[in-house]
Design a protein that fits this description.
8% of the residues lie in helices and 43% in strands. The strands form 3 sheets. It has an 11-stranded antiparallel sheet. A 3-stranded mixed sheet has the order 8-9-13. Strands 1-2 form a two-stranded antiparallel ribbon. The protein has 3 helices and 16 strands. The chain has helices at 139-151, 169-177, 181-184; strands at 17-18, 21-22, 41-54, 70-86, 93-107, 124-129, 135-137, 153-154, 163-164, 198-204, 214-225, 232-241, 258-259, 266-283, 288-304, 314-325. The chain is globular. By secondary structure, it is mainly β.
Length: 328
């Protein structure tokens, strides 16, 4: 059953008089997310980034000029299978998600233990989603995230207190929370969308530090592609810094802790700039996201735990996010 199939798509051709000529405007398309009972959708989800940490970008402490940034490379690869267990075309549908595989790759000056995210393999959680693709009940996801967050913090040495190892929990959260955002954030979805129409939303930014930050995402329907075996929407996206907060931000850690590694010597992290773009392919006929790719740069400022002669650390992050429907 197609979600919102009871809605009649209104295709209006507006005629503007120019002498004896008339020019039809572009037709609107009804674009909605659809889940079919007992039909599993398997996605490969990837979050990858290079983090460059420059402790003295202005060369305050060196006569040789600016320092050489330290680099941290991280990559999270997951395959998650989504199966509808209860479909309600007019209300909330219940989706069961099983994490079939997880792999984290990390390259840094000092290697860290296995990422706690790899413990997600084999786990299943459910959530409820609206007819347009907005997650409405994420309590089970929240429980998993808190459990993973607790496992990445150790209390081995009482003198050092609780130490948090690097993890990619926020990457999992960002991928899961926003998988259908391109559709869920459309204003007045029942009115349809036409090419070149844009709409905005705010989304979680996955970061190597436990900072709650969001980006402003602007989606634009680039075109409706009628070639091939199905009708698809090509949706472009662009990203910018946002001062807003995300009300449903999932809590990842509880209590106080010290971060392990070079990032643990810094505090006062602040986003100074975000820029980038992306593109998604959406199957209008089946109401399914086919693929998406995002690339953006995040700039951050920070301070040392103790003042160090006017040095002002700077962090640059090159982020890539992608998802791909498997078994098409």
């Amino acid at each position: 059953m197609r979600i919102l199939s009871f809605v009649i798509i209104v295709s209006a051709v507006i005629v503007s008089a120019t002498g004896c000529q008339s020019t039809p405007k572009q037709q609107k398309e009804l674009i909605v997310v659809d889940f079919k009972p007992d039909t599993t959708l398997r996605y490969e989800l990837v979050s990858e980034r290079d983090t460059f940490i420059d402790l003295d970008p202005e060369g305050v402490a060196s006569k040789k000029g600016s320092s050489k940034p330290q680099k941290i490379y991280e990559k999270l690869e997951m395959v998650i299978a989504y199966t509808p267990v209860e479909v309600d075309p007019y209300g909330l549908s219940t989706i069961s998600a099983t994490c079939e595989s997880v792999k984290v790759t990390r390259q840094a000056k000092k290697q860290s233990p296995t990422d706690v995210m790899e413990q997600l393999k084999g786990k299943t959680f459910t959530f409820k989603v609206s007819p347009v693709g907005k997650i409405e009940d994420y309590s089970q996801i929240q429980k998993i995230v808190l459990d993973l967050g607790e496992k990445t913090i150790t209390t081995g040495d009482p003198k050092k207190g609780r130490i948090k190892s690097p993890d990619m929990i926020s990457d999992f959260v960002a991928l899961q929370w926003h998988i259908w955002d391109s559709i869920a954030s459309i204003e007045n979805p029942l009115k349809g969308v036409k090419p070149n129409q844009s709409w905005t939303t705010t989304q979680i930014i996955p970061l190597p530090v436990p900072v709650q930050a969001v980006k402003e995402t602007t989606y634009t329907l680039k075109e409706i592609d009628h070639s091939g075996n199905y009708k698809k929407a090509i949706i472009e996206s662009s990203f910018a810094k946002s001062e807003e907060t995300l009300g449903s931000w999932p809590k990842r850690y509880e209590g106080k802790f010290q971060m392990k590694g070079i990032l643990g010597f810094l505090k006062g992290y602040r986003i100074t700039d975000i820029s980038g773009s992306g593109e998604q392919t959406f199957n209008i006929d089946t109401g399914t996201v086919i693929s998406e790719h995002q690339e953006y740069k995040t700039k951050m400022s920070a301070n040392f735990m103790l003042p160090l002669g006017g040095m002002k650390p700077q962090i640059d992050i090159d982020q890539k996010i992608s998802l791909r429907l498997l078994d098409q």
